[in-house]
Amino acid sequence: MAGRPAFKCAIVVSAELPTGLAANAASVLALTIGDRVDGLVGADVKDADGVVHAGVIRTPLPILTAPNDRVRGIVQEAAAQDETFFVSFSALAQSCRTYDEYVEKMAATATADLASVGIGLYGPRKQIDRLVGALPLLR
């Protein structure tokens, strides 16, 4: 289909998270994707009055939801795909009050012991669709 971007973004948060924690997870993941994917955020724009407005993301960014085990499965599947950028957000990260606390706790935690409660994805549309295409929007 003409006009469809070749790359896609998506965020998936655990359906078990309360609304506030789901919003927190999604915002952390969105910030990280925006920082790590060059060119994802567009240039500043001017309105008809000449007022400059900060650029926003160039592609839709759906916030989806899935059970905890499916979130963890998506993390594992994304890790196996070379062309997909992903960032996982763990319950450990969400429990920390400072970044220093996060660094300290991560250093003492094995990868297998991290419980992912969210994932942000950016990659080829087909790969992202295969990972999250059937998931519902967060409501």
UniProtKB/TrEMBL annotation:
<dbReference type="InterPro" id="IPR023476">
    <property type="entry name" value="Pep_tRNA_hydro_II_dom_sf"/>
</dbReference>
<protein>
    <recommendedName>
        <fullName>DUF2000 domain-containing protein</fullName>
    </recommendedName>
</protein>
<dbReference type="Pfam" id="PF09391">
    <property type="entry name" value="DUF2000"/>
</dbReference>
<dbReference type="InterPro" id="IPR017021">
    <property type="entry name" value="UCP033763"/>
</dbReference>
<dbReference type="InterPro" id="IPR018988">
    <property type="entry name" value="DUF2000"/>
</dbReference>
